[in-house]
Amino acid sequence: MVLENIDTMLEKLNTIKAMGVNISIDDFGTGYSSFSYIKQLPANTLKLDMDFIKDIPENKADMAVVDGMIMLAHNLGMKVVAEGVESQEQYDFLTEHNCDLIQGYFINKPLSEERFVAEYMSKEKETSSAH
After folding, report:
1. Average pLDDT of 77-86?
2. Angular region, 29: left φ>0, alpha ψ -120 to 50, beta rest
């Protein structure tokens, strides 16, 4: 949608950002996302598509691309989220290369609200009461 009329959409996105809304670029590096647009879009967060993450650490080219995208995003003042993290090795690589956030089965499979609260909020209570 953004690419159909880039000038109008940039104006609208800048207005939205000025309201205090954070904007993320999802699935960066695939489909219509382009390096020529990343510098124009008023985004706070760049989400790396899981296609670049799934073969880390076996695929050295993916590792180089992910490292470069993390550095690019940080140099543009954005945070980086890696999608589809499933292994300790992927997590370690991303941590070593200063990826800000991860999502994927390495943390957990999708949970209902009830399961999330039961599983994670009870741990938070235990941690805070132990201090």
Report:
1. 96
2. left
Cβ atoms 106, 85 nearer than 8 A: yes
What share of the chain in percent tops pLDDT 90? 56
The rounded distance, in Å, linking the Cα atoms of 59 and 79 is: 24
Other Cβ atoms less than 10 A from the Cβ of 86: the count is: 16
Pair 92, 58: CB distance under 8 Å: no
Q: What is the largest CA-CA distance in the chain?
A: 54
Cβ atoms within 10 Å, residue 116: 12
Single pTM value for the model: 0.77
Q: Is the peptide bond before 42 cis (omega within 30 degrees of 0)?
A: no
Domains of the chain: 2-130 (3.20.20.450)
Instruction: Give Cα separations from 38 to 56, 82, 119, 131 (angstroms).
Output: 24, 17, 37, 43
Residues taking part in catalysis:
83
In 5-117, DSSP assigns E strands to 24-28, 45-48, 79-82, 101-102
